[in-house]
Design brief:
Keywords: Ribonucleoprotein, Ribosomal protein, RNA-binding, rRNA-binding. It comes from Paracholeplasma vituli. This is Small ribosomal subunit protein uS15. InterPro entries: Ribosomal_uS15, Ribosomal_uS15_bac-type, uS15_NS1_RNA-bd_sf. Belongs to the universal ribosomal protein uS15 family. By secondary structure, this protein is mainly α. It has a single domain (5-85), classed as Helix Hairpins, CATH 1.10.287.10. Helix content is 75%, strand content 0%. The protein has helices at residues 5-15, 25-45, 50-73, 75-85. Helix 1 crosses helix 2, helix 2 (25-45) runs antiparallel to helix 3 and helix 3 runs antiparallel to helix 4. The chain starts with a helix and ends with a helix.
Length: 89
């Protein structure tokens, strides 16, 4: 269920601010979004997997907090990230 190392490295490369960046809010949000999408697909099949559902809710909460921080800190980066990740319908 976890994302592969290659997929995570690709996400980091796509969303990093500079060459050494691996932990900025944008990168963390992108990785969490990929994990959330995979958990959603898993839970569509395994509807009674409540432990994974709890993990999904925790990841959604973490992403929500990071998005709120990014919105407060850098509105331009926030809107660009929302569009790139296709969030907020």
């Amino acid at each position: 269920m976890a994302i592969t190392k290659e997929k995570k490295q690709a996400l980091i490369k796509d969303f990093q601010i500079n060459d050494k960046d691996t932990g900025s809010a944008q990168v963390q949000i992108a990785v969490l979004t990929e994990e959330i999408n995979q958990l959603n697909a898993h839970l569509a099949i395994h509807t009674h997997d409540f432990h994974s559902k709890r993990g999904l809710f925790q990841k959604i909460g973490q992403r929500k907090r990071l998005l709120a921080y990014l919105k407060k800190a850098d509105l331009v980066a926030y809107t660009a990230l929302i569009e790139k990740l296709n969030l907020r319908g």
